[in-house]
Every structure is written in C-alpha cells, then in structure tokens.
Amino acid sequence: MAEYKRSSLIASAPSGYCPGCLHSLATRLISDVLDELGQAQNSLNVISVGCSALNIKYWGGDFLSVAHGRAPAAATGIKRVNPERLVFAYQGDGDLAAIGLAEIMSAANRGENFTVIFANNQTYGMTGGQMAPTTLEGQVTTTTVNGRDPSTTGYPLKMCELISTLKAPAYVARFALNSPKGINQARAGIKKAFQLQMQGKGFTFVELLTNCPTNWHLSPLKTLEYMDTNTIPYFTPGIYKDCEVDAE
Question: pLDDT by residue (tens digit) across 37-70?
Fold first, then answer.
C-alpha cells in the first residue's frame, strides 16, 4: 500500500489559502510531479502577484517573486541564461490575462522554452473579488454587482484558445480540478509540459480551472458544483495543442 507523503518542495507550515481553495491542490500537484521527475532541486518557480504569491510561504525550492503580470518576462530571462533549469511560472487569471496579457502572448509567440501554469478562478481573489478577464457572463463580482454584462465589459477571455492559435507553443491544455478524474488529468498534463520543456520543445501552457469559495460566496462543496454547471461548459477542458514526448 502506497504511503502518502508531503512533497519535498512543500514547507511544513499552516495553510494561508482559504478553506476549500484549489490553489493548494494545484501547488501540491506541481510539487509532486517535480519530485517524480527528479527535478525538485533543479526547478525554479516564478511567482507573480495574487493568491499565487502565497507560494512564497510554502515553496521549499528556488523561486523568484516578480511584479504583477511580469512572470513570463522574468522566466524568459532566467531560462535563457540557465537553459538546464526547469523554469515555470505560476499565475492567476487577473495577473496573467489582464496586466500580463501582452507578456504571456509574446512569450508564447516566441516559443520560449519554459512552462506556465495558469490557475483560473474567474476572479481577483486576493484584492476583493473584482471582475477578472475570465469572469463569466452574468457572474456577480464586487465590480459587476448585477453580473458581468458583455455589452460593457466584453466577454470572458479563453486563454488556451488564444494561445493555441500561435504557431510556436508546443503544448496547450486545460484541466478542471473539481473531480478526481480532472485532478489525475491535470497531474499528467503538468508532467508532460515539464517533460517537453526538459526536451527543449518550447513553450508549454497548462490551465487549471479552480475555485474561490470566499469571493464566489459559496461553500467549498458548492463551488465544485458551480464549476460543473458554469465554469466547465464555457472553459472546455482538453488538449488544445499537443507535441509528443521523446522516448527515453
């Protein structure tokens, strides 16, 4: 019987994430995959601003904290001068799809050889629950009290679909973390993205559909149901661009 152990990259500290938040699960998946690949001590986590910045407290490996939206630019520089390192950025939707939109699209278009893991919970979780670029139509936030209206605020951005239109990216995929099946698929997707980077295949992008019990004003269990009925129908999970991992 397998024994479940704490990943070598997760510090032993009380969680600062809200109860039921899937950011903690995403962090665990990333760290487990790095352990499995033997890359824990060779990895470098580029942490931007948002709830993802709580990784500063928990991440036991090398990391770099950067300005809001600038993780892809920093990761580009790090990977170019340290090509042997496994470099990844962990970003939220407000960070990546708003102030960092030009950064992520430019890095993807250049085919930079690093990985971006994108946690999409459709809200600005850390700063008060404002509308994010990925907030769903009709979704209530502190800045869309009557629900998001596309006639004034536009439509939710679909980042996998946008990035997959570019020629350079090697792997683009989206997974939902609200079910065991989705979690296992996400783990496999993260592993493949890292393997492709290690083989020099180019830019890899993994979107993780997550939740926000606090700003959605729902219980953790209800957020998982909300994802099934609202998030997943709009942000369809799947592989949007694929590349084969070379046999070892």
Answer: 999 999 999 998 888 888 888 888 899 999 999 9
What type of residue is 77?
G
What confidence tens digit (pLDDT) does each residue in 86-136 have? Answer: 999 999 998 999 999 999 999 999 999 999 999 999 998 878 879 999 999
Q: Would you kindly state where each structural domain of the chain is located, as residue ranges? A: 23-241
134 contacts 93 by C-beta, under 8 angstroms: yes
Distance (Å, whole) CA 10 – CA 23: 13
The percent of the chain in helix, strand and coil, each rounded to the nearest 5, is 40, 20, 40
Q: 23-241: what CATH class?
A: alpha beta
Residue 141 dihedral angles phi and psi, to the nearest 5°: -135, 180
- Residue that wins the pLDDT comparison between 8 and 142: 142
Q: How does strand 62-65 pair with strand 86-92?
A: unpaired
Backbone φ and ψ for 175, nearest 5 degrees, come out as: -135, 150
100 in Cβ contact with 189 (< 8 Å): no
